[in-house]
Amino acid sequence: MPEQLNQRVEACFRQAELFFKRPFQRPVVSIKLRGQKAGVAHLHENLLRFNPQLYRENAEDFLKQTVPHEVAHLVAHQLFGDRIAPHGEEWQLIMRGVYELTPHRCHSYAVKRRQVIRYIYKCPCADSDFPFSAQRHGLVGRGRRYLCRRCRQTLVFSGETRVQ
């Protein structure tokens, strides 16, 4: 895990402890998040997950904005409990008061969509294609059957794939 990320998480917790004059339990920190989210705070597991690709591509802003954003979720949860809105006034108070940051709900990082392969299935009764995800295609390989809604015959893999 990038050391700067760990150091920033620790610094955010120390800042919150100085502000609120109380200790906060430290989370497990992971950089195994994929997709469009820059970070996720799992409140009940006391876990922070960060997106390594978005961190690499936006390191400065990520450390300045994303890390405090996620730490603020855990701090708010430890202070106020379960019955608060994720980006509600308690979280906003921490973002403004502790970290002196504007509380943005979402990041504005450019996210590259990954290409997805679709496996084309067909039915004897229809001229249309049925594009299956890799997961569904794998289930077919393990014996699962999918039926045409019109004629109830088993859909059959055509051998074609498409990249979307």
Automatic annotation (TrEMBL):
<keyword id="KW-0479">Metal-binding</keyword>
<feature type="binding site">
    <location>
        <position position="73"/>
    </location>
    <ligand>
        <name>Zn(2+)</name>
    </ligand>
</feature>
<feature type="binding site">
    <location>
        <position position="69"/>
    </location>
    <ligand>
        <name>Zn(2+)</name>
    </ligand>
</feature>
<keyword id="KW-0963">Cytoplasm</keyword>
<dbReference type="InterPro" id="IPR006640">
    <property type="entry name" value="SprT-like_domain"/>
</dbReference>
<dbReference type="GO" id="GO:0008270">
    <property type="term" value="F:zinc ion binding"/>
</dbReference>
<protein>
    <recommendedName>
        <fullName>Protein SprT</fullName>
    </recommendedName>
</protein>
<feature type="active site">
    <location>
        <position position="70"/>
    </location>
</feature>
<feature type="domain" description="SprT-like">
    <location>
        <begin position="7"/>
        <end position="158"/>
    </location>
</feature>
<dbReference type="InterPro" id="IPR023483">
    <property type="entry name" value="Uncharacterised_SprT"/>
</dbReference>
<comment type="similarity">
    <text>Belongs to the SprT family.</text>
</comment>
<dbReference type="GO" id="GO:0005737">
    <property type="term" value="C:cytoplasm"/>
</dbReference>
<keyword id="KW-0862">Zinc</keyword>
<dbReference type="Pfam" id="PF10263">
    <property type="entry name" value="SprT-like"/>
</dbReference>
<dbReference type="GO" id="GO:0006950">
    <property type="term" value="P:response to stress"/>
</dbReference>
